[in-house]
Amino acid sequence: MKGDSSTPSLPGITQGPNGATAPAGPNFPEASSPEIAPPEAALLEVYLEDPSRHLPVRGANGSMPRVVYAAPVPQIPGNIPRVALLVDDIGMSASVSQEALNVLPASISVAFSSYAPDPTDLLALSRRKGHEIFLSLPMQPRNAPADSEGPRALGYDHTVSEDSNNLLWSLSRFEGYVGVTNAFAGQTGAAFALSPDFRMVASELDRRGLLYLNAHPGGLRYGPVPGGDASVMISTDTDAETVRQQLAQLVTVARNKGSAIGVTGPLRPVAVREIASWAAGLKDQGVALVPVSSLSNLPAPQLQAMPAGGIPASIPQPQP
Q1: pTM
Q2: Which end of the chain is more exposed for a tag (fewer CB within 10 A), N or C?
Q3: How far apart are CA 103 and CA 272, in angstroms?
Q4: Which domain holds residue 289?
């Protein structure tokens, strides 16, 4: 499913020349909106199960996807609270995804589902608009199997081989992303993401030079992959007023702690409207909107003792 090239508008939103809201304010400079770097051949390897697709890797010169594909950050005084927001579920609805990418400011990061049917045009639009890209990795939620995350979800009750194969399949769905998140259509895959089995995934993400955003507030983030932790999970399966309250809570956390990351999903038109309005008012509140990657460079927690066998140094690709 591909998005077309026209630029739709949402009721009540005024767009700037690039389609993004851009409030004026005296406190700190706006982030510029250069395009996100396109996929680089030096940061890709062939996915052996399907040679038409690729997996992210560290470059021979030490370059990494988590650096090359990160959005720029404006110079902000140290005393200014920072908020970052990841909009999840991009790519599952071409029309709503296109609206979100066109009307939301560049500093808002986006996550594409590994199940997105054909995200090529939307990925290109995201890069043109300056939105850094994450991959939403399907993981088994606490209430599985009643609430499934699809046939390629990672699960704590799977074998290591099954999870390894599913991980590589998801990582090969598209190219040019800064990192991976367990945010997935409003779920966080907590049963797997917060289990010791996730250490295998964390090790592989780090080996490939990616970030990891833990979307489960208060949940343990396993290393060795560097990353960040969401403070607020903003549900969009609700009314506009509740979305506004959750966004206000994110700002409150940022004021108290100095910075905060929010995650919102699944993608809904009401959420796009409210996020655009909220983002337009942040500068007047003395709060800076920054990309998720800028708050997701925290060192990983120390690995605890592993069961016999430990973490594989890397996931070997199955031979075709």
Answers
A1: 0.84
A2: C
A3: 8
A4: 41-72+79-295
Beta strand 54-56 pairing with 44-46 = antiparallel
Residue 7 has, within 13 A of its CA and on its CB side, a CA count of 16
Contact (Cβ atoms closer than 8 angstroms) between residue 293 and residue 132:
yes
Q: Decide: 170 and 152 in contact? Cβ < 8 Å.
A: yes
Bridge partners of residue 38, in order along the sequence: none
Would you say residue 318 lies in a domain?
Answer: no
SS3 assignment, position 22: coil
- Which tokens sit at 269? 């038109």
103 assigned to some structural domain: yes
pLDDT for res 91: 93
Q: Is 302 exposed, middle or buried (0-12, 13-18, 19+ CB in 10 A)?
A: exposed
Contact yes or no for 167/204 (Cβ under 8 A): yes
Which residues, in sequence order, are CB contacts of 252 under 8 Å at separation 6+? none
Residue 255 in any domain: the answer is yes
Please give the structure tokens belonging to residue 139: 């993981």
Residue 50 gets which letter from DSSP?
Answer: S
- Return the CATH number at 248: 3.20.20.370
169 within a domain of the structure (yes/no): yes
- Per-residue pLDDT reduced to its tens digit, 159-174: 888 889 999 999 999 9
Rg over CA atoms, the chain: 19
Contact assessment for residue 198 and residue 275, using Cβ atoms and an 8 Å cutoff:
no
CB 135 within 8 A of CB 181: yes
Report the relative pairing of strands 82-90 and 288-289 from DSSP bridges: parallel
Phi-psi region of 44 (alpha: psi -120 to 50; beta: other; left: phi over 0): beta
> Hey, is 215 helix, strand or coil?
coil
21 pLDDT above the threshold of 60: no
Are the beta carbons of 102 and 74 closer than 8 angstroms?
no
